[in-house]
């Protein structure tokens, strides 16, 4: 048989059809695999959680606050609270780390309409990066336009001290260097473009106002603007790793935040973030100190009132955006 440029016998055509068919099935199988990987991050799946919340919350939240380890007290600022346990929200992940309560709290502050995540999801808990960032998309569907993201972190920068606040001006996503990304896979165009910039990820205007707030609070010696680096954990860094982080321009190391920021930026949110410095990352082999989670929690508790005030004042100064 003559087919275009080539001549085939019937037998050859059968073989070719078989190969095409086989490849078609294999391709379909792979397509299905990658689709199913994203199913729980898709609009349809997340809509269920958004509908559940929308039916019970009488206002549209505009600002999402993610409380880092021990920083759940940030939600205490809110008035007229409506509280949900993560486990009661359909298609919402559940958090397992000490210091992360697992509650979504809606409320108002200085007229700003806010939702607070008291408890977040970490890569070291075994969640996929998509699962970690799932709440961002759900709350975007509800109307959220801005994100204040917080975390507990160790200081790589030797000028920082325990108890300081580091306003995040940029980050280094070490997971992305290895090809790990919450937005890997088919793009959900409803939320944002396939390719998107990150060079202005952290809102410069919010940073400017936050610095003013810190100055007014008289904590100018206790805050910095720096670069956050995501080290997946759950172990704290080795000495050699801390030295590498320093060489690469990281000021504070943590185990969260970046997946949430990536997904927030993808769907067009404004982002402000800060790290609360809970411990020093150890640079020297002869130092006897070892970081541990109880000290991390203790450090946050000691300064929780200052951090709460910092966030409340920042919201007060930016409330027009979140009404
Ligand atoms: O949720 P964040 O980033 O505040 O939590 C950090 C990372 C670990 O969960 C914990 C380590 O002590 O703090
Ligand atoms: N990676 C990392 N995360 C932290 N979270 C709190 N302290 C630390 C730390 O020293 N390193």
From TrEMBL:
Keyword presence, Phosphoprotein: no
Cited SUPFAM superfamilies: Purine and uridine phosphorylases
Role summary: The purine nucleoside phosphorylases catalyze the phosphorolytic breakdown of the N-glycosidic bond in the beta-(deoxy)ribonucleoside molecules, with the formation of the corresponding free purine bases and pentose-1-phosphate.
Highest taxon listed in the record's lineage: Eukaryota
Protein name listed in UniProt: Purine nucleoside phosphorylase
E.C. no: 2.4.2.1
GO MF annotation terms: purine-nucleoside phosphorylase activity
GO cellular component: cytoplasm
PANTHER family to which the protein is assigned, alphabetical: METHYLTHIOADENOSINE/PURINE NUCLEOSIDE PHOSPHORYLASE, PURINE NUCLEOSIDE PHOSPHORYLASE-RELATED
């Amino acid at each position: 048989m003559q087919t275009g440029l080539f001549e085939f016998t019937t037998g050859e055509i059968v073989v070719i059809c078989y190969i095409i068919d086989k490849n078609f099935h294999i391709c379909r199988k792979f397509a299905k695999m990658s689709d199913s990987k994203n199913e729980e991050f898709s609009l349809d799946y997340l809509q269920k959680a958004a509908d559940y919340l929308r039916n019970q919350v009488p206002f549209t939240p505009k600002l999402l606050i993610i409380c880092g380890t021990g920083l759940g007290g940030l939600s205490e600022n809110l008035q007229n609270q409506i509280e949900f346990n993560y486990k009661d929200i359909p298609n919402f992940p559940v958090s397992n780390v000490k210091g992360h309560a697992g509650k979504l709290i809606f409320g108002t502050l200085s007229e700003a309409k806010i939702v607070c995540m008291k408890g977040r999801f970490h890569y070291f808990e075994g969640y996929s990066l998509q699962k970690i960032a799932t709440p961002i998309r759900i709350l975007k569907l509800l109307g959220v336009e801005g994100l204040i993201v917080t975390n507990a972190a160790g200081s790589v920068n030797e000028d920082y001290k325990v108890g300081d606040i580091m306003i995040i001006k940029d980050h280094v996503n070490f997971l992305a260097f290895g090809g790990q990304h919450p937005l890997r896979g088919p793009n959900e165009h409803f939320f944002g473009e396939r390719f998107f910039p990150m060079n202005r990820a952290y809102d410069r205007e919010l940073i400017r106002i936050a610095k003013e707030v810190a100055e007014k609070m008289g904590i100018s010696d206790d805050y910095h603007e720096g670069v956050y680096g995501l080290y997946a954990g759950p172990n704290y860094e080795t000495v050699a790793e801390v030295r590498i982080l320093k060489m690469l321009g990281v000021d504070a190391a943590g185990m969260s935040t970046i997946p949430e920021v990536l997904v927030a930026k993808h769907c067009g949110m404004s982002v402000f973030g800060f790290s609360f410095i809970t411990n020093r990352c150890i640079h020297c082999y002869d130092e006897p100190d070892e970081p541990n989670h109880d000290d991390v929690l203790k450090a946050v508790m000691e300064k929780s009132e200052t951090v709460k005030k910092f966030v409340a004042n920042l919201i007060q100064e930016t409330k027009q955006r979140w009404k």
